[in-house]
Amino acid sequence: MQVSEAIRPLHREDIDALDLKILERMSVDGRVSFKELAHLTKTDQRTVASRFEKLVTLGIIRRVTVEIDWAKIGLTARAYMGSTTALGSKDREKLFHYLRKDPRIVWAATTIGKHEYFVEAIDVDVTTLRKEVCSALEPLTSNLETSIVTDQMKQRDQTGLLGYFRKRMFADS
């Protein structure tokens, strides 16, 4: 199967189907043992351990984290916010500083498109989110648009994506 240049990873020659199989399983459970990975991939634990270290060295695996259901611990308001700005570089630095320091901002990115910035924020409830997070962002942004998450339709699925690319890249594996 011919793979287009657009979907080839930067280090295409450094990873193979075994690496992607390891990543697929780890994306489901980052605590999976090397023993279980070896059994699943029909290799030995030493091979899995060296592959894991290689993936870390290449920066493909940056860290192993847990997924938290925030609502179950009382943080029930989650919002995605998009913004543009006509502010100068000084105000932009204030915005970036605020985004980096407020722990309720769990993700932020600059983009190309309708919004220059996207932010994911989590707080106790919608009222607190509005009063404390949105109000603080408004003077630093222009055209702040907020969408409150009411229900999650699909969990983040890195496993499916990895399997798809493994099959596309290594059709025989």
Word description of this protein:
It contains six helices and four strands. The protein is of the alpha+beta class and 173 residues long. It folds into two domains: 5-65, Winged helix-like DNA-binding domain superfamily/Winged helix DNA-binding domain (Arc Repressor Mutant, subunit A), CATH 1.10.10.10; 70-148, 2-Layer Sandwich (Alpha-Beta Plaits). Helix 1 (17-28) packs antiparallel against helix 6.
Write the layout of secondary structure elements.
Elements: H1 17-28, H2 34-41, H3 45-57, E1 77-84, H4 89-101, E2 105-110, E3 117-123, H5 126-137, E4 142-148, H6 158-169
Antiparallel strand pairs: 1-3, 1-4, 2-3
Question: What's this entry about, in short?
Answer:
With 173 residues, the chain is α+β, with helices and mostly antiparallel strands.
